[in-house]
Design goal:
Chain lengths: ~280, ~400
C-alpha cells in the first residue's frame, strides 16, 4: 500500500545494511514529508544512511556540514559582493553588473530548493550550531521557502527534498526543533548486525577472521574508562589493516594478542588503557 | 488496518499514557501520526510501533518508557513493579561502590569492613538487598530512591559523612525509567558527566576576538576604500575572529567532602584545559583565604588573592567547590583550618573581593541544589557568588550567566 503513495521505496543500498525498523521509519518520514532527525553514537552510520537513501532512490545528495560559526544565511545563499565590485571596475565578464541576481550564489539548502529534481539534503551534525540557527533553519525547511533580501525575491522549493538531519549531541535539541521532525536513535549494532555490515564491506572475508574480529571488537569495547569507544568505522579500518598484514593470523586475536590497537583507539589515553588491559589479559 | 487503530479509544488512551508517563508528546505530533495512518503508511503493529515512536517520541531517553507503555497497551504486558527492580539496581550500584571504596561503604552501613570483605559479590548483593528492604519503612515517597532527603547513610543526599550517592551523579533519573532491562535502558540514565557533555555545555562560553593573520576580506571596508580610490579596487583584509576567553578556574580539592565529586571535576578540568587558551587553574581547601595555590598539593606555588586585582576584569572566574564547611571557617578572621594561613581577614571578605574584581563569576557546586538550603555556608556563599549545580543543566545556566553582559 505504501508503495502507491511513494513512487519509490527505500530498501538496501550496496554499502549500507539497513534494519527493518529504520527502513520503515525512513519510508513513513518521506511520505509525511518531514525531516528525519537521527541520533546515535558516532560511527553508527547516521551519515551513511543519507548516502544510502540517495543511492537507492537515485536522487542527488546535497550535504550541508554544519559548523559552529555558521549563520543560517550561509546555508541558504551568498551574495558575492567582491565579484560584483570587480566586474563593475573591469567590466570584462559575461555577468550583468546591474543585475544583482547574477551575483547570488546558492548555499546548500538553496541548491536543494533550486534543484529541478527531488534531492536528498543531509544536514550533518546540527548540534554544532547554536540553538537559534537550528530553529531558524527548521522554519525555512518547514515553509520550504526563504527570502533573498538583496533582490527581494522569494526562493521556493520546486520539490520538497528528503531531509536527513544528524546529531551527536547527548543533550536534546530544542522543543520547537524536535516538534517539527521525526526522530530515530540508531543503537550501536549488535554482533549479528555487525557481521552483516562486515560482510557488505568485505564480501570475501574469511569466516575465521570474521568470527575472531567480531568477538575481539566487542571485547575491547568493554574495556573500562574508555572515552571514545571504537565504532563501526574503526572496525572496518582495523579489518583492512589486519588483512593487509601478511604475518597476521586470526588465531592470535583469541590469544589476546591484538595488533594495530591504534586503529581502534584514537585518543592516546584510550590507546594506553587498551594496551594495558590487553597485556594483562583482563579483557579475556 | 489503519481504521482499526484510528477510532479506538485505546489508541487515544495510548497517547495519554505516554503523556502521563512524562514523555512530551505534542498534539501536533499526534495529528501527524493520524495523518500517517490515514495515508495508509502503517500496516502492521510492528510498523505502528516504529512509526509512532519516530513521530511521537523525540528523545532516546524516553524510548524505554515508550517500550513499556506500548507493551502494556498493545500486548497486555503488566506495567513493571518498580520497587523490586529498583532495589536490584541500587544494590548493584552499591556493589560497584563497594568495589571502589570498601571502607566508605562499610562505614556508611555501620558494618565492619573485614566482615563485609568475607562475602562474595553475590552474597553482598543479597545482603544489600536485605538492608534496603529493612529501610522501606523510612521511605519518603513510594517509588523513589530509598531514604531520599533523610539522614540514612545509604540514601541519596545523606548528611552522614560517609554518605554517598547511589546510582550515579545525575538526579533526573525517575523510577519509571529504571524499570525494565530494555534495549534503551542505557540511554535513560544520564550517568556521569562525560567530557563530551561538559564540552557541549561549555560550548557557548567564548569571547570572539580578532586574531591571527589578516586573511579575511572585509567587504564594507573594501567598498569604502575602493570608492575613496575613485573606483580603483582596493581589497581590505582583516583578522578572523577567534576565541580568546580568559578563565580562572578555582577548584576545592581538599577534604573528604569533595572526594565523591573528583571524577566530575576531573572531567570539567580536562575539558577546560583543552578548550580555553588562556586558563589559570588554582586550588583551595574549603574556602579562599589569603592565597590560592597553583599546584594541586597547595604547597609550592601560592598566588596572593590581593594580586588578582591586576588581572583583566573581563576574566571569567569559575569556582568549583561544595561550599560546605563549619561557619567559623568562613566568618572568623583566623578561620582557616591550616595553621599557617593567618592573615586577619576572614574568608568571606576575600570571597567578596574576588566577586567584585571579576563581575563575571560563578560558583559551581557539585552538591545537589535541593540540599543547599540545609548548609548555612552554602547560603552565605550564594549571596556572594551566583551558584549553580555542577550538572549538565547547571553548567548551561552558569555559562549563560558568564556570558551575560
Amino acid at each position: 500500500m505504501a508503495s502507491n503513495i511513494l513512487n519509490k521505496k527505500f530498501t538496501d543500498a550496496t554499502r549500507y545494511v539497513l534494519d527493518d525498523e529504520l527502513a520503515s521509519i525512513v519510508n513513513v518520514t518521506m511520505a509525511l514529508e518531514m525531516p528525519l532527525l537521527l541520533k546515535g553514537e558516532p560511527g553508527t552510520g547516521k551519515t551513511m544512511l543519507a548516502h544510502a537513501i540517495a543511492e537507492s532512490l537515485a536522487m542527488p545528495l546535497i550535504v550541508l556540514n554544519v559548523k559552529s560559526s555558521m549563520k543560517l544565511v550561509d546555508a541558504l545563499y551568498q551574495y558575492d559582493t567582491l565579484t560584483r565590485l570587480n566586474d563593475s571596475r573591469f567590466g570584462d565578464s559575461h555577468r550583468n553588473v546591474s543585475n544583482i541576481e547574477d551575483y547570488i550564489k546558492m548555499g546548500k539548502i538553496g541548491q536543494a530548493f533550486a534543484s529541478k529534481s527531488r534531492t536528498v539534503l543531509l544536514i550533518d551534525e546540527i548540534d554544532k550550531a547554536d540553538t537559534d540557527f537550528q530553529d531558524d533553519m527548521l522554519d525555512v525547511l518547514d515553509q520550504m521557502e526563504f527570502d533573498i533580501i538583496e533582490i527581494d525575491k522569494t526562493m521556493k522549493a520546486e520539490h520538497r527534498p528528503v531531509i536527513i538531519i544528524t546529531s551527536n549531541a547527548t543533550k536534546d535539541l530544542s522543543d520547537p526543533f524536535l516538534g517539527r521532525c521525526n526522530f530515530h536513535h540508531i543503537a550501536f549494532p549488535d554482533p549479528k548486525m555487525m557481521r552483516k555490515i562486515i560482510a557488505v564491506h568485505f564480501p570475501e572475508i574469511d569466516s575465521k577472521l570474521m568470527e575472531n574480529v567480531v568477538i575481539t571488537f566487542y571485547r575491547v569495547r568493554r574495556i573500562d574508562a574508555i572515552e571514545k569507544k571504537p565504532a563501526t568505522r574503526e572496525l572496518i579500518n582495523w579489518i583492512r589493516a589486519l588483512k593487509s598484514d601478511p604475518d597476521f593470523k586470526p588465531k592470535a586475536l583469541a590469544k589476546g594478542n591484538i595488533p594495530y590497537l591504534g586503529v581502534l583507539f584514537k585518543k592516546s589515553q584510550d590507546c594506553e588503557r587498551a594496551v594495558k588491559a590487553t597485556n594483562r589479559g583482563r579483557v579475556f | 488496518m489503519a481504521a482499526c487503530f484510528r477510532n479506538e479509544p485505546m489508541f487515544i488512551d495510548f497517547f495519554y499514557s505516554l503523556k502521563n508517563a512524562g514523555i512530551q508528546v505534542s498534539p501536533t505530533s499526534f495529528l501527524t501520526l493520524q495523518k500517517a495512518l490515514d495515508m495508509g503508511l502503517i500496516n502492521s503493529l510492528d510498523e505502528f510501533y516504529t512509526s509512532a515512536r519516530a513521530i511521537l517520541v523525540k528523545s532516546e531517553r524516553y524510548f524505554d518508557v515508550y517500550d513499556q507503555i506500548f507493551a502494556h497497551r498493545f500486548e497486555g504486558a503488566e506495567l513493571p513493579e518498580y520497587q523490586g527492580i529498583e532495589i536490584d539496581d541500587i544494590s548493584r550500584a552499591m556493589l560497584e561502590e563497594w568495589l571502589k571504596t570498601p571502607r566508605d561503604l562499610a562505614h556508611a552501613l555501620d558494618m565492619d569492613e573485614a566482615e563485609l570483605l568475607q562475602l562474595t559479590p553475590d552474597e553482598l548483593i543479597e545482603y544489600f538487598k536485605a538492608r534496603l528492604e529493612d529501610q522501606k519503612g523510612r521511605h519518603y515517597g513510594g517509588a523513589t530512591w530509598i531514604g531520599t532527603g533523610g539522614t540514612s547513610p545509604v540514601g541519596h543526599f545523606g548528611h552522614h559523612p560517609g554518605g554517598m550517592r547511589v546510582g550515579g551523579v545525575s538526579r533526573d533519573t525517575s523510577a519509571v525509567k529504571l524499570a525494565l532491562e530494555r534495549r534503551y535502558k542505557d540511554y535513560t540514565r544520564s550517568g556521569l558527566l562525560t567530557q563530551n557533555m561538559v564540552g557541549e555545555a561549555l560550548k557557548r562560553l567564548r569571547n570572539m576576538i580578532p586574531v591571527g593573520p589578516e586573511d579575511k576580506i572585509d567587504i564594507d571596508k573594501t567598498i569604502y576604500q575602493t570608492m575613496k580610490n575613485c573606483g580603483e579596487i582596493e581589497i581590505v583584509f582583516s583578522r578572523s575572529l577567534k576565541d580568546r576567553l580568559k578563565v580562572i578556574l578555582a577548584i576545592d580539592n581538599g577534604g573528604w567532602s569533595m572526594d565523591p565529586y573528583i571524577p566530575v571535576i576531573q572531567t570539567l578540568f580536562d575539558y577546560a584545559r583543552s578548550q580555553f587558551k588562556d586558563l589559570k587553574t588554582c586550588f583551595f581547601h574549603n574556602t579562599v583565604y589569603d592565597v590560592l595555590w597553583e599546584d594541586p598539593a597547595r604547597v609550592n606555588r601560592p598566588l596572593k588573592v590581593e594580586n588578582f586585582s591586576t588581572f583583566d576584569p573581563q576574566t571569567r572566574l569559575v569556582i568549583v567547590g561544595d561550599a560546605s564547611m563549619a561557619p567559623y571557617e568562613l566568618m572568623a578572621a583566623d578561620g582557616s583550618i591550616h595553621v599557617k594561613e593567618r592573615s586577619g581577614k576572614p574568608s568571606i571578605e576575600q570571597l567578596k573581593f574576588l566577586a567584585q574584581t571579576f563581575p563575571h563569576c560563578v560558583w559551581l557546586n557539585p552538591a545537589s541544589s535541593q540540599m543547599w538550603d540545609y548548609t548555612p555556608t552554602i547560603n552565605t556563599i550564594r549571596q556572594i557568588f551566583p551558584m549553580f549545580e555542577l550538572s549538565l543543566d547547571g553548567l548551561e545556566e552558569a555559562v549563560r550567566h558568564l556570558m551575560a553582559k
